[in-house]
Amino acid sequence: MDVIWSRHYGLVEKLSLFTGMWPYLKPRTRYLRIGLMSITAVAIFVPQIAYQIRCERDIQCILTCVPTFLFTIVNIVSLYTFSINSSKIKRLIERLFVDWEELETPEEIEIFKSHALFCKRFFAIYSAYCFLGVYGFTSASLVSPILDVLMPLNESRPVLLPIPAYYFVDTRQYLIYIYGYAIVSCGIFMTAIVAHDCIFVTYIEHVCCMFTILGSRFECLFTIHNNAEKNTKSDSDETYCKRIAYLVHMHRQILEFVKLVEKIFTIPFALQLLILITQQEAGGLEMSRYIFYVMGQLFHLFCLSFEGQKLINHSLEICDKIYDSSWYEASIKSQKLLILTMLRSFRPTFLSAGEIYVFSLESFTTVKKKVNCYRLGM
């Protein structure tokens, strides 16, 4: 089991260990790493707050700093959310291990492996995109100095800071040091964001996998029994009832798993959604300056919405799988148990950000349309 975990989820574990978000860390080690992350956040907060104070009542100036300010807050909230809920995170991971051990057929093992392989590929692509995006955002500050050397003007070009903040020094003279400071800080914080999101995707993919397996078991429930050696009718009905009761219990466990994931991740994701909304209010000039930032946020929202849509689709398929089975061969008692599960499956299972934004492609399309409206209007 450890070999399978390391093969498919090793990247998530390494990123979580680095940021102190891994629930199996010793408490002292976890607190030390989270403390170092907090110190890094304070080192970023102070210049940003000073920048906002210097803006006085200039709303446009304040909005320039708000997205990166909220980005720092999101990291801290994510870190402390994981620290506070470390026992719940550990319980979810242990549930994943238990479900691995309870697989019954080679087909179910292949289903699990396919979802785990998808997670592995997603982690690699998502982390690469996020780090390239954040380094592209901060590296924009080097454009002016490079152009001053390659295409000098009568006067130096304006300094574009990697992070809008007041650094208490001459920004032109110490730009390279400010850039290095921003690269290190943003890299550390992006590691926390990627670890947070990858763990979230791991849980969603696991739930989708369990819904697929549950649907397969419902669909083949009566077929397997008919192909087996039959006993008396009463024994047959009792076997059906026990098996259906087990599957109903399995369905309930999956729903409880989703509820626990919702409680842990809803607040950090609500703040991340607030970043995107705030950035749309920053104006056309800031939309151009923050092209890497805005595109990164949209890609981030798309990935989460895509996973949320998969969860919705897989939860709704349970009803169809039950209907496709030979339910009519079961007793009335067994059929009543199936009806309860079918009724619950009519309601989609979903995750949300602060109970405001439901992770789905429909919600993402709505946000994307609003972004396009802002861009066209400006």
From TrEMBL:
The chain crosses the membrane at residues 31-53, 59-82, 123-147, 174-195. It is a multi-pass membrane protein. Keywords: Cell membrane, Membrane, Olfaction, Receptor, Sensory transduction, Transducer, Transmembrane, Transmembrane helix. One of its GO terms (molecular function) is olfactory receptor activity. The keyword Transmembrane applies. One of its GO terms (cellular component) is plasma membrane. It comes from the Eukaryota. Signal peptide: none annotated. It is found in: Cell membrane. GO terms for biological process: signal transduction. Belongs to the insect chemoreceptor superfamily. Heteromeric odorant receptor channel (TC 1.A.69) family. This is Odorant receptor. It comes from Dinoponera quadriceps (South American ant).
